[in-house]
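Support request, please re-run this one:
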Amino acid sequence: MPITPIIERCRARLEDIEFGSVREWKARHPGGRAVGCFPVYTPVEIIHAAGMLPVGLFGGGNTIELANADARFQSFVCSIAKSTLEMGFQGRLKLLDGVIFSSICDVARNLSSVMARNFPELHVDYIHHAQNMTSPSAVDYVESEFGRIQRSMERLAGHPVSPGALAASLKTYNQIREILRTLYRIRRESPHLISTVELYILARAGTLVDPEDHLRELREVMDLLPARQGRPKDRVRVVIESAFCEQPPLDLLQVVEDAGCYIVDDDLLTGWRWYVEDVPEDPPPLRALAESYIRRSVYSSVRHDGPRSRNLGLVEKVRRANAQAVIFMPAKFCEPALFDYPLFRVALEQANIPHLVIEFEEKMWTFERTRNELETFVESMLFD
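Re-run finished. Output below.
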């Protein structure tokens, strides 16, 4: 059996803005509750351990027409905030019993309050992540915050979360992240065997189903992948950066690949691949999650990592992936990404790494100008 049918099934799932997969899960779990998780990071293990379904909440893409959300936000706000709110006004979030936001930016903070005010029937939570990552109390603080979220999820679920259930959930998500890291390594070493569009579809579709179902899906792909045939092509190896929250349209990722690029690393869906290694199973689960958030997480523009330089992190990512260039892909009006770009640019220039900037928003319909820019960039790399 080829991998293509699995990818097609996953693509249909993530393009269904009616959350059909959530509806199916609820039909199989009478009385079960679903919780939407806004980027960038939510401790989904806690939600899952409470017997609820964590659901990736990434906005409405280019299928949502804004009729109400514009009146609640300024014009210079990212698309994902507006379309997520609009989905609520259109009744598309009724399948969700709760939503969780976190301190990734001012827009996410404000969206949390706007959602709570406009949809009082929805359980809205907000995670105050640690700001001083080097403080001796950082792990203690994050553990206490995760404990507060656990108590909140227990109230929503109607029953306590046992340490055993949380440990089991942690193990399941460790297995998922381990396979995703393996798939990223395969794509990095042999990008002709699995494209970024395919890998992204597979990963994002997993945010809409029970993690056990996603784990089976990933294992099926891993079993089928060795039989795939393909020949390497003469393409430019690039890293995509700054797409950590609002996700670029699938068609835009396809344009990048069609223009002659192998995307060999990225920060797509960062929040669902947050840890660079497994969360230890020895300490108490909440403590293990807190320690991993502080010490085993990827660098990100939405948090301050103290002595860990994001600039050097990007250069190291490029070197590790044996990439030739970076494509910055920030969402329009994304302040964390746009604030970091000047710093990233200096670091790349000092390391003699070429880069290109492609700004996007959910409502992009045509990509011809972007295609031309990419093709020109690729030709300058190949024939310099």
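The first strand starts at residue 34 and ends at 37. The CA atoms of residues 101 and 108 lie 6 Å apart.
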